[in-house]
Each structure stands twice: as structure tokens, then as C-alpha cells.
Design goal:
The protein is of the alpha+beta class. 27% of the residues lie in helices and 28% in strands.
Length: 101
């Protein structure tokens, strides 16, 4: 229930044009991509091409992500997450999607 309420509050604040800072975790804000106009009068909502939500992580989250360990997905499926003992030639190229462990 708390997550649902948080989602509603964040959504409402972003729609009101505000940035939402979630403590040391990071900040959400809305950015627009627009088509230019020659005059203020020629500018309208039709000039907006896309609306995006931007997340800027805080220092705490950035630091935590620097400690992420990436492993090959096929090694997780096989039950092994060790990347130190493998040479690049031994890695199965069939699944080249690294994941964060």
C-alpha cells in the first residue's frame, strides 16, 4: 500500500512540474523534447514531441552501483557466477547479456 501511495504522490508532483527528491536515493523530474517556434504566440502543446521522466541517482546509490559485479547470464543459469577463472575464450558467446549480481 505504501508503494502505491508513493507512486501516486510522485506522479502528481511530476505532473505539477515539480522535481521529486527521494532522500539520498535520487531525484525524479520531467523533461520535454519540443519543436522550436519563432514566436511565443506560435508555441503550444503541439510543439511538444516527447515527455520523459529523468532520474538522477544520489551519491549513495551511485556509490552502491560502483560495487556491482557483472556476470554472464549463462553462468547464473548454470549455477556458477565466478568470472575470475575463465579466459575470454572459455565464455559461451551464446548469451552475451551481462547482468548485475
Amino acid at each position: 500500500m505504501a508503494i502505491r501511495q508513493l507512486r501516486k504522490v510522485v506522479q502528481r508532483l511530476l505532473l505539477d512540474g515539480k522535481s521529486v527528491k527521494l532522500g539520498n536515493w535520487g531525484t525524479f523530474n520531467v523533461t520535454l523534447s519540443t519543436e522550436g517556434a519563432d514566436t511565443k504566440e506560435a508555441l503550444s502543446a503541439r510543439n511538444v514531441k516527447t515527455v520523459n521522466i529523468n532520474f538522477q541517482p544520489g551519491d549513495e546509490l551511485k556509490t552502491a552501483m560502483q560495487k556491482a559485479d557483472f556476470v554472464w547470464l549463462n553462468k547464473i543459469v548454470e549455477g556458477s557466477t565466478s568470472t575470475d577463472s575463465e579466459s575470454p575464450d572459455e565464455i559461451d558467446e551464446g548469451d552475451d547479456r551481462p547482468v548485475i549480481e
